[in-house]
Amino acid sequence: MAVVDPLSQLTSGFDTQCPYTNGSIQFANGVNFTVYCGLDEPYNDYCPGSAESLCPVHMESLSDCMAYCSQSHPLCAGVSWNPDLLNGYGNCYPKNAPPNSYGFYVSEGDGSTGQSFWVHTAIANIVNGSDITVDCSDQAQIMALNGNTFITSCNREMADNNLTISHEASIQDCIDTCASAVDGTCLGVVYDTQLTNGWQNCYLKNATAPIVDSTSGSTVALLTSDGKTPLSSAPASGEGGSPPKSKAWIAGPIAGGVALISILITALMLVRRRKSRRRAAAVAAQNQGYYYTAGKVELDGREHRPVPTELEAWKSPIEMEASAPPIELEGDVRRQSRKLDR
Q1: What pLDDT is recorded for position 297?
Q2: How far apart are CA 140 and CA 152, in angstroms?
Q3: For residue 13, which of 117, 169, 139 has the smallest C-alpha distance?
Q4: Which of the pair, 196 or 275, is modelled with greater confidence?
Q5: Which of 9, 48, 191, 330 lies 20 to 30 Å from 322 when distance is taken between CA atoms?
Q6: Residues pairing with 118 in the sheet
Q7: Banded pLDDT at 103 (limits 50, 70, 90)
Q8: d(Cα 210, Cα 108) in Å, to the nearest integer?
Q9: Can you give the pTM of this predicted structure?
Q10: Could you tell me which residue, 93 or 214, shows the higher pLDDT?
Q11: Among candidate residues 95, 60, 97, the one with its CA nearest the CA of residue 80
């Protein structure tokens, strides 16, 4: 398998020879294109998707460029592809309309036509909704192949909550695609009859709101359980053929709630027991003449404060007698005392 050097692509591009026979029909994702070799459609460039999209885009072949067009939103009407990259690395130019009255420019890359680069063009053979049957009745019931019932709303759409997008030839085919979703999460569809938003015109939805008015003529069809009221969530087993839902999530919250209640009851009992002990201690302390505050017993200062007392003034101080003569130790006793001191 040959390895392509990216640097060589930037300097020399791809093979400039037209990959298909001029005027042939080629298909990409169900869209058929007519190929125009050596011709450039210089008008009607647009940038599919959000404003942040890079346009033009880089594609390695005209086939890739056509596939990009077939999946673009809004509807892509064709592409021009520059294989030699002389116009830049972005070499695939999506078009939002077929060629106008000015037609194509000849672009054969030899300079004889005034253009020194090669361009090949492919135009999609679709006109908005030309191959789609327009048949919408408000509040009509449509039964899917699996027996599910959908109710329609004309000229309505939902912008968000897409599961998948595909091209379907009729709203019945779009509903059947939703009903056959293996995960059972498809709750409705938006069907773009006029292909205004692109060749992929069947939008599977996993929600039933918000629904708004449509300016493109699209139709909303929502899954129902009674033929009247749209479901707000996926149906349970036996209601529309969807797979049963696991109820394991119910056991978790119930067990957690029981445990929480047990903890609260235990805590309440401990608080009451502690208050009862404090109350009993306070009563006992008051009966003995004490105050009981915040777990400490204090003396009652009003009844048991000690009263200071003074000595009686008429009592005179007592002194030692001054007449007692000093007493000396005997000599041998003094000698023994000195020895002990040593």
Answers
A1: 45
A2: 5
A3: 117
A4: 196
A5: 330
A6: 108
A7: confident
A8: 51
A9: 0.57
A10: 93
A11: 95
What torsion do the CA atoms of 135, 143, 31, 158 make, to the nearest 10 degrees? 80
Task: Kindly tell me the sign of the dihedral angle through the C-alpha atoms of 22, 24, 29, 30.
Answer: positive
Q: Are 186 and 199 in contact (CB under 8 A)?
A: no
- Residue type at position 65: C
Measured at the CA of 268, the angle between CA 262 and CA 269, to 5 degrees, comes to: 90
Sign of CA dihedral 93, 96, 98, 104: negative
pLDDT value at 66 more than 90: yes
Tokens 């003529």 appear where? 217
Checking DSSP bridges between strand 219-224 and strand 149-154, what pairing results, if any? antiparallel
DSSP codes of every residue in 211-233: -EE-SS--EEEEEESSSSSBPSS
Determine contact, residues 136/219, Cβ cutoff 8 Å. yes
Q: Has residue 33 got a pLDDT over 50?
A: yes
Tens-place pLDDT, residues 215-225? 878 999 999 98
DSSP 8-state code for residue 95: E
Q: Identify any residues that bridge with 224 across adjacent strands, giving them in sequence order.
A: 149, 230
Residue 5 has pLDDT above 60, yes or no: no
| 172: three-class secondary structure by DSSP | helix
Rounded to whole angstroms, the Cα distance separating 290 from 161 reads 74
Three-state DSSP state, 10: helix
Q: What sections of the chain are H helices per DSSP?
A: 6-12, 62-70, 171-179, 248-287, 301-304, 331-341
User: Is 112 strand, coil or helix?
Assistant: coil
pLDDT band at 210 (very low <50, low <70, confident <90, very high): confident
Structure-block tokens of residue 40: 């450039």
Cα-Cα end-to-end distance for the chain: 114
